Amino acid sequence: MFELLGIPPQALFGQLLLGLINGSFYAILSLGLAIIFGLLNIINFTHGAQYMMGAFVAWMLLNYAGIGYWWALLIAPLIVGATGIVIDRLFLARLRDLDHLYGLLLTFGLALIIQGLFRNQYGVSGLPYSIPPELAGGRNLGFMFLPNYRGWVVAASLAVCLATWFVIEKTRLGAYLRAATENPTLVQAFGINVPRLITLTYGFGVGLAALAGVLAAPIYSVNPNMGADLIIVVFAVVVIGGMGSILGSIVTGFGLGLIEGLTKVFYPEAAATVIFVVMVLVLLIKPAGLFGRAA
Amino acid sequence: MKTGRMLLATALVALFAGGAEAQVSVKLGVLNDRSGVYADLSGEGSVIAARMAAEDFKAEEKGIKVEIVSADHQNKPDIGSNIARQWYDQDGVDVILDVPTSSVALAVNQITREKNKIFINSGAAASDLTGKQCSPNTIHWTYDTWALANGTGSAMVKAGGDSWFFLTADYAFGHALERDTIAVVEKSGGKVLGTVRHPFPGSDFSSFLLQAQSSGAKVIGLANAGGDTINSIKQAAEFGITQAGQNLAGLLVFITDVHALGLQTAQGLVLTESFYWDLNDDTRAFAKRFAERNGGKMPTMVHAGVYAGTLHYLKAVEALKDKDPAKVMAKMKEMPTDDPLFGKGQVRADGRKVHDMYLFEVKKPEESKGPWDYYKLIATIPAAEAFRPLEEGECPLVKG
């Protein structure tokens, strides 16, 4: 069958693995979006810009402060997460009781402003950022040459996704969070500072985007538009997985990476559209998304 | 009585003004990508270049009033077309300059012809602009896909790269570049093992690179540009493709791309350009002045083309004391071109501007003396050989 289509099985394995790698980025980004939507009811269109900021902060840390990749992995999400907290305090907190649309418009506008500022300062061609020496090189898996760095990306993103899922679904903190979205007044009555909890959650979601940005810096060009292209795809992922579903966004992120990977082999011209085709199909059959609960 | 005196005075003024210099005012519109993947290689830099040309020409002293406007076509043919129509119909623009992104350039080419204005293209690559779709109102200044294919393609085949696999951006430009390069490769005795067309713009090319790798081709031809080329080259290094012996041919690489890649990744890349800031004293002097205005960034060949094209246009207007498009186009084709950036050349009947092209190799990090010192000159392709011969372009304007 595979040979019939002109693709030997080992090449197919290679492509699937690559799909999984791209899926890791989709997963981390859509996870952040899902958390923010699930707990804040905000459709965070700044997510792509925050992913880009993560990559840029990593670059700045290296070039202005001499801080390398491993520390950037920790520091960049903290810095960008902190800017997220500021955004939440200044703007989003005022929109809590309004329709989704207001949050969407506000975050979309913010994304355009942030991208514009970076474009003005750094141009669009992008900045070089090297793979850390510890992860340079790669290994031959027999069916393909896997750069160590890509392997690390898959492992790191899986670990982050699972840890996040665990915290939200299985711990006391996560229970507070989920309760605070169901009934904030009641939770507040138990002596929990709900507004702070929500602000920190937004900061965390934004931090996840920045983490994806740092992970992406060595393999994609670090440029102001890097998030704008990705964010639309990631939104499709979230819609397919079911808005606000944590597990759904993780599984769909990886799954769609695989589907996209296969499309790149069999019909490359459609690689950019296949995710949206899936989205249309899912919306027709199961409007709440694959893992979503019908409202 | 009073009216008579007024008339006399007006006549006198007119006579006086006519004796000094007839004033011609021209409006130039720089239409390009100001925010997307091609914004660094064209963008505001092209506006700066057009302005510098008007200043260096001392247009004002020669009785030509130059006004320069600019707009962002966002690499979308519909947006570019709307701006071009509005400029020509309502805003009184006489000439559209630059226009990278071949799909947009081909649209503006049509509109300019309909409206009988002038289009001096610097940024776009598709050789169709002076081939099947050539127009009496268009000049294609800086480079084209045929010239790139001819430079880089034949150099790679000569160096032993006789089997090719193409990674092609899936729109007019990529298709043209792929087509022209395949022709060169096959003519030089090489063969093409396969092609894959990737969405434009893309970010992950690993899948396509892997397909290129398993094809076993000696050369992977990158028929894309800007951010797509940067990511392709970066990821080819990551996947060990270049280390394993396959060569990359960046069919359209700008100096801004090399700057973004860094020499560590870009070293050894062979590429064709029509301009490099460090070619001679004239280009260095221009580049220095340009960089001062452009935040320290050196000019690309697209910027140089906008400068030289504007200069040539102004010379034609000066000679005619008139801006009638048909007359100006005839003058621009009749007068040999001569400017500090491209040297002497000419505009052919099909609208193709011909000049020397250069084959460069990107320096190793240890060979570079500082920022923007990136290229080694390998060969100069003389003007007569650098572009597609007039009779082979199938341009209806060329009778033969």
UniProtKB/TrEMBL annotation, chain A:
A single MF term (Gene Ontology): transmembrane transporter activity
Transmembrane segments: 12-35, 68-87, 99-118, 149-168, 197-220, 232-259, 266-285
Membrane topology annotation: Multi-pass membrane protein
Biological processes per GO annotation: amino acid transport
Keywords per UniProt: Amino-acid transport, Cell membrane, Membrane, Transmembrane, Transmembrane helix, Transport
Record has tRNA-binding as a keyword: no
Xref: Pfam families: BPD_transp_2
Family per record: Belongs to the binding-protein-dependent transport system permease family. LivHM subfamily.
Protein name: Branched-chain amino acid transport system permease protein
UniProt source species: Chelatococcus composti
Taxonomy of the source species: Bacteria, Pseudomonadati, Pseudomonadota, Alphaproteobacteria, Hyphomicrobiales
UniProtKB/TrEMBL annotation, chain B:
Signal peptide (residue range): 1-22
InterPro entries per record: BCAA_transport, Leu-bd, Peripla_BP_I
Domain Leucine-binding protein as annotated: residue spans: 25-363
GO biological process: amino acid transport
Keywords: Amino-acid transport, Signal, Transport
Keyword Transport: yes
Family listed: Belongs to the leucine-binding protein family.
Record protein name field: Branched-chain amino acid transport system substrate-binding protein
